[in-house]
């Protein structure tokens, strides 16, 4: 756990970059520092590994003041990843990754074996081991940067806008990779970004800083989206925070409509009589996989003539945001819900999703009341 | 007679190839002056350039001192040193070193100072001690430029070491000076040709050093 206690940083020219900041950064989780340019994110991060000394306040790691440890030993116990990766151009990929183990006095052989292990962990082709940094793409270089930071297995990882120099598709890949690695390793990660989407995607907790280095809000992403502390945070979250907040709500409890899904070979004549005018039905194959939409008043049973059903969402795995998106995109206004094997479980219209959102809100309100009652009782 | 004829007759004259005034002896002397002056200049210029480049401090003072050193006329300095110190190797070495320090110093300083700051930042951030930051991160990346500074210093020394002859020392400058006195233009041209050949040898030597010492990752030739 990293405890930032009442820390301020005033630069020599009088700029106050961080102003009486207090943050508790838990182990085994990703804490994101986010905020507009110049709000003191980098300064805060670099005070943790003493690349910058605070003007006042204390930073503790697992209870111990970081000033009590020799500065290089402190830094060796924290992985550090920066925006342009900062790889050593004259060293091969393998030797770049082996840097900190070598600093710690490991033999060359052992350090390289460890480096090879990490290349695999971050998804780098082992064939790249002997290459030099200039022979890698930006995204690959960032992976090397992450591998190098993880090489000595530090409990803490400090990352300063590590993915902001790569294109959005590669960035998403790197974010997923980071989440996967974090799932395996469970580090205390402090991650700086100015991109709120990135903060929401990867953060377990998000600290929003405002210009002048003041903490505006420190909360879990869904809480941030549903209850921004003030107008600054709300504006920083952007115009679609309501929609984005749906990413944190599960589709598990959606009330799916199963009455309008029929396998091929059903008696369409009879069904048309029953449900004529009641809108389209979803036709599935014998294995319950979706085939397409049919309007029974005109459709004559030809599978080729079905209206494409578009993308489905997977119940339990995809969020209400995805479900709503699918419903909006669907030609019939109904999203197709499937299980892990792609078999249709039912349909969810926009209204169904809306009802699930209302239910989730009520549940959360009840939960937070419950929490405050417990607190009050103590 | 043209220059090529001079050169040909100078090098084909068997008497020019042995004895205390023979080509091997004069070249050997010349190389000794060059190596000596380069070693002293490097011993002065490299550490100062590395440290000021690493810390980023003292750049203005450096520029000032080197501009001053460059303004000194080498031959004038030689005469001054000769008057002051008399005959010997020292009055020759001093002007050569003064000539060679500025390119080494300034190039080394600039080579380190203008490096991409992110690898250095990353190195410090992962807990690398300052000396290792300098020698394991900065120097390898700056090596091509540092070598180019040493190379231009070496070329300048090789061509200027001919002045040693003025204070009764050897080196290939002997041929030029003696030839002028004796009106033996074959000798003058031969000495000049030898100087040029030595300069070319220096170029080849530094090319070879760079091949061996500079990492392929820094040479940055994209072959794909
Ligand atoms: N060495 C310095 N001397 C003086 N002021 C500085 C120094 N470093 C940063 N600052 C100032 O401190 C403030 C915070 O800088 P910092 O680099 O922490 O911002 P940031 O949140 O990381 O911004 P960005 O998103 O642009 O990276 C800025 O106003 C910046 O100009
Ligand atoms: Mg920054």
UniProtKB/TrEMBL annotation, chain A:
<dbReference type="GO" id="GO:0005524">
    <property type="term" value="F:ATP binding"/>
</dbReference>
<dbReference type="GO" id="GO:0015418">
    <property type="term" value="F:ABC-type quaternary ammonium compound transporting activity"/>
</dbReference>
<dbReference type="InterPro" id="IPR003439">
    <property type="entry name" value="ABC_transporter-like_ATP-bd"/>
</dbReference>
<comment type="similarity">
    <text>Belongs to the ABC transporter superfamily.</text>
</comment>
<dbReference type="InterPro" id="IPR017871">
    <property type="entry name" value="ABC_transporter-like_CS"/>
</dbReference>
<keyword id="KW-0067">ATP-binding</keyword>
<keyword id="KW-0547">Nucleotide-binding</keyword>
<keyword id="KW-0813">Transport</keyword>
<dbReference type="Pfam" id="PF00005">
    <property type="entry name" value="ABC_tran"/>
</dbReference>
<protein>
    <recommendedName>
        <fullName>ABC-type quaternary amine transporter</fullName>
        <ecNumber>7.6.2.9</ecNumber>
    </recommendedName>
</protein>
<dbReference type="InterPro" id="IPR027417">
    <property type="entry name" value="P-loop_NTPase"/>
</dbReference>
<feature type="domain" description="ABC transporter">
    <location>
        <begin position="2"/>
        <end position="237"/>
    </location>
</feature>
<dbReference type="GO" id="GO:0016887">
    <property type="term" value="F:ATP hydrolysis activity"/>
</dbReference>
<dbReference type="InterPro" id="IPR003593">
    <property type="entry name" value="AAA+_ATPase"/>
</dbReference>
TrEMBL record, chain B:
<keyword id="KW-1133">Transmembrane helix</keyword>
<dbReference type="InterPro" id="IPR000515">
    <property type="entry name" value="MetI-like"/>
</dbReference>
<feature type="transmembrane region" description="Helical">
    <location>
        <begin position="189"/>
        <end position="210"/>
    </location>
</feature>
<keyword id="KW-0472">Membrane</keyword>
<comment type="similarity">
    <text>Belongs to the binding-protein-dependent transport system permease family.</text>
</comment>
<dbReference type="InterPro" id="IPR035906">
    <property type="entry name" value="MetI-like_sf"/>
</dbReference>
<dbReference type="GO" id="GO:0031460">
    <property type="term" value="P:glycine betaine transport"/>
</dbReference>
<dbReference type="GO" id="GO:0005886">
    <property type="term" value="C:plasma membrane"/>
</dbReference>
<dbReference type="GO" id="GO:0055085">
    <property type="term" value="P:transmembrane transport"/>
</dbReference>
<feature type="domain" description="ABC transmembrane type-1">
    <location>
        <begin position="27"/>
        <end position="206"/>
    </location>
</feature>
<dbReference type="Pfam" id="PF00528">
    <property type="entry name" value="BPD_transp_1"/>
</dbReference>
<dbReference type="InterPro" id="IPR051204">
    <property type="entry name" value="ABC_transp_perm/SBD"/>
</dbReference>
<feature type="transmembrane region" description="Helical">
    <location>
        <begin position="31"/>
        <end position="50"/>
    </location>
</feature>
<keyword id="KW-0813">Transport</keyword>
<keyword id="KW-0812">Transmembrane</keyword>
<feature type="transmembrane region" description="Helical">
    <location>
        <begin position="157"/>
        <end position="177"/>
    </location>
</feature>
<protein>
    <submittedName>
        <fullName>ABC transporter permease</fullName>
    </submittedName>
</protein>
């Amino acid at each position: 756990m990293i405890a930032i206690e009442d820390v301020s940083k005033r630069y020599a020219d009088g700029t106050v970059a961080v102003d009486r900041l207090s943050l508790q950064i838990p182990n085994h989780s990703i804490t994101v520092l986010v905020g507009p340019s110049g709000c003191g994110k980098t300064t805060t991060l670099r005070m943790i590994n003493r690349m910058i000394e605070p003007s006042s306040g204390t930073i503790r790691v697992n209870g111990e003041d970081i000033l009590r440890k020799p500065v290089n030993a402190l830094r060796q116990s924290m992985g550090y990843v920066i925006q342009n990766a900062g790889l050593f151009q004259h060293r091969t990929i393998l030797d770049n990754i082996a840097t900190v183990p070598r600093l710690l006095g490991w033999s060359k052989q052992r350090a390289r074996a460890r480096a090879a292990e990490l290349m695999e962990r971050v998804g780098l082709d082992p064939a790249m081991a002997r290459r030099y940094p200039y022979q890698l793409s930006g995204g690959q270089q960032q992976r090397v940067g992450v591998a190098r930071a993880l090489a000595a297995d530090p409990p803490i990882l400090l990352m300063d806008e590590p993915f902001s120099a790569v294109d959005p598709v590669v960035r998403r890949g790197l974010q997923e990779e980071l989440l996967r690695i974090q799932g395996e390793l469970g580090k205390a990660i402090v991650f700086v970004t100015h991109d709120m989407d990135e903060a929401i995607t990867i953060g377990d907790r998000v600290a929003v800083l405002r210009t002048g280095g003041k903490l505006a809000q420190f909360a879990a992403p869904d809480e941030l989206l549903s209850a921004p502390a003030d107008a600054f945070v709300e504006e920083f979250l952007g115009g679609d925070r309501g929609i984005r907040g749906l990413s944190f709500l599960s589709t598990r409890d959606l009330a799916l409509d199963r009455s309008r899904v029929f396998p091929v070979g059903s008696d369409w004549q009879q069904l048309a009589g029953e449900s004529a005018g009641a809108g389209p039905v979803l036709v599935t194959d014998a294995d319950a996989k979706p085939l397409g939409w049919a309007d029974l008043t005109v459709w004559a049973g030809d599978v080729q003539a079905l209206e494409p059903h578009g993308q489905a969402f997977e119940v339990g795995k995809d969020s209400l945001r995805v479900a709503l998106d699918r419903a909006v995109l669907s030609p019939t206004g109904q999203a197709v819900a499937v299980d892990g094997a792609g078999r249709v479980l039912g349909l969810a219209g926009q209204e169904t999703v809306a009802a699930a959102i209302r239910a989730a809100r009520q549940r959360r309100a009840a939960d937070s009341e419950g929490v405050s009652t417990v607190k009050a009782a103590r | 007679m043209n220059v090529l004829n001079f050169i040909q007759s100078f090098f084909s004259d068997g008497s020019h190839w042995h004895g205390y005034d023979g080509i091997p002896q004069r070249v050997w002397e010349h190389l000794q002056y060059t190596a000596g002056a380069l070693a002293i200049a490097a011993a002065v210029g490299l550490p100062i350039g590395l440290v000021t480049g690493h810390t980023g401090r003292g750049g203005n003072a450096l520029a000032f001192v080197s501009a001053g050193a460059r303004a000194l006329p080498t031959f004038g300095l030689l005469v001054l040193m000769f008057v002051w110190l008399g005959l010997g190797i020292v009055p020759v070495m001093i002007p050569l070193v003064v000539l060679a320090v500025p390119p080494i110093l300034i190039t080394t300083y600039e080579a380190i100072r203008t490096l991409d700051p992110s690898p250095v930042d990353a190195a410090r951030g992962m807990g690398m001690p300052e000396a290792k930051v300098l020698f394991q991160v900065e120097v390898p990346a700056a090596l091509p430029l540092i070598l180019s500074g040493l190379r231009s210093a070496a070329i300048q020394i090789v061509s200027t070491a001919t002045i040693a002859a003025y204070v009764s020392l050897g080196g290939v400058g002997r041929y030029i000076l003696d030839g002028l006195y004796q009106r033996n233009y074959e000798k003058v041209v031969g000495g000049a040709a030898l100087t040029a050949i030595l300069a070319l040898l220096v170029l080849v030597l530094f090319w070879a050093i760079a091949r061996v010492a500079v990492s392929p990752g820094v040479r940055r030739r994209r072959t794909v």
